[in-house]
Specification:
Layout: E1 2-8, E2 16-19, E3 23-27, H1 34-46, E4 63-68, E5 74-78, E6 90-94, H2 96-108, H3 115-130, E7 135-140, H4 148-161, E8 166-170, E9 185-191, E10 194-199, H5 207-216, E11 229-233, H6 236-248, E12 258-262, H7 269-278, E13 283-288, H8 293-305, E14 311-314, H9 318-322, H10 330-338, H11 348-367
Parallel strand pairs: 3-8, 3-9, 6-7, 7-8, 11-12, 11-13, 13-14
Antiparallel strand pairs: 1-2, 1-4, 4-5, 9-10
Helix pairs in contact: 3-4, 6-10
């Protein structure tokens, strides 16, 4: 398998070094280089597609280098004038353009419009049943034309295929990333002429912490990896109430790329914050003060686990800070409290939470162009 790839003078891609795993998910904003990097990997091992657009005389010399980890690890390099020596992994590259074109052709012929997506699923099923090993599979946006259930099924197929092969794909779908396997996520950001590569280390979470995340984090929560900014909250009441509060203050979190993510309890907040911090995704934490010694100790751990993220402590809890009547039907009461409320009726702490999240999202979009 390829353990890393380095590019130099590749047209349309800043020079970079990217670590690779047996399964690697490339994420990042639009125009951050994900598709171009996949094409560079394909060109390195297969000589296709051409990276110079078929006009080598119009670009400077460029090179793509990689490290193959086999019985004897070795470096390989490809330039317009030099090809790496065999053996090389057999490579299959599913581009988004080809799959979309296949769907259009099928629709024109009166066939199934999602034929490109179905072909990808069928190939994986066949390769798994045949016991294929030692191959390199590259996919640009594998979620195209697949409904949510099929995307989740595809993710299981990719993980199974990656046990004996290597899979590298770009994605914008929460169904195709997993907080538990966070070390497989590589986030790309381009600022100016520099490509930033960020990846959470494999040992970031203990086995117990990973188990807790696997119990709490579903694919809906994984949308945080694609957000401009993330508001981490303890539970369901905050998760369902805060979007209403955002809109009461004149902001739509979805339009701004802001995810409000409930982590399944206060103790999981530092785990999610650690992952977001490693991937440089802006975030803030909202949690109850839980007056008393146990609460104070956990609050101190939260502060040390995410020292650079803004913290908002609601005293003593969300319900009282929001002025909700009692603890019964909290979500309904929150909706009644804020759905048609003027901004002046929203408590100041929520003004601060919303303003901070909006500012983080705006700065993130400026930083990534």
């Amino acid at each position: 398998m390829l353990t890393e790839i380095a590019t130099a003078n590749v047209p349309g891609l800043p020079d970079t070094l990217v670590p690779l795993r047996r399964v690697t998910a490339l994420i990042g904003p639009r125009a951050s280089g994900k598709s171009r990097l996949l094409a560079a990997i394909a060109w390195l091992v297969d000589g296709r597609p051409r990276l110079d657009g078929g006009h080598p005389a119009t670009v400077a010399d460029y090179a793509v280098r990689g490290t193959l980890d086999g019985h004897v690890p070795r470096s390989i390099v490809r330039t317009p004038a030099e090809a790496p020596a065999p053996p090389l992994p057999r490579c299959r590259f599913f581009t988004a353009r080809d799959r979309i074109a296949a769907a259009h052709r099928a629709a024109g012929a009166g066939e199934l419009a999602a034929s490109g997506a179905e072909q990808l699923l069928a190939c994986l099923e066949d390769w798994l049943s045949e016991g294929v090993t030692g191959r390199l599979l590259l996919i640009e946006e594998p979620e195209l034309d697949l409904n949510p259930q099929a995307q989740r099924y595809l993710y299981r197929l990719l993980r199974a295929y990656g046990e004996r092969n290597q899979v590298i794909y770009s994605t914008r779908s929460p169904a195709l990333v997993d907080a538990v396997h966070h070390e497989e996520i590589v986030r790309l950001d381009i600022t100016g002429r520099r490509l930033w590569v960020r990846q959470a280390p494999a040992g970031l979470l203990s086995d117990e912490e990973a188990l807790r995340l696997s119990a709490e984090f579903d694919h809906e929560r994984s949308e945080m990896f694609f957000a401009s900014a993330v508001v981490l909250v303890e539970g369901r009441t905050e998760r369902q109430s805060l979007p209403v509060i955002f809109r009461a203050l004149g902001h739509d979190p979805d339009a701004l790329g802001i995810s409000i993510v409930e982590v399944g309890g206060k103790g999981n907040l530092p785990l999610a914050a650690r992952l977001l911090g490693e991937l440089n995704i802006p975030h803030l934490l909202v949690y109850d003060s839980d007056r008393g010694r146990p609460g104070a100790e956990l609050n101190a751990r939260l502060a040390s686990a995410a020292p650079e993220a803004p913290h908002f402590m609601l005293d003593p809890d969300f319900e009282q800070a929001a002025g909700l009547p009692g603890n019964d039907d909290k979500v309904i009461n929150a909706w009644r409290r804020f759905a048609n409320a003027p901004a002046k009726r929203v408590p100041p702490v929520f003004h601060d939470i919303v303003a901070t999240a909006v500012d983080l999202a705006a700065r993130a979009k400026v930083d990534t162009g």
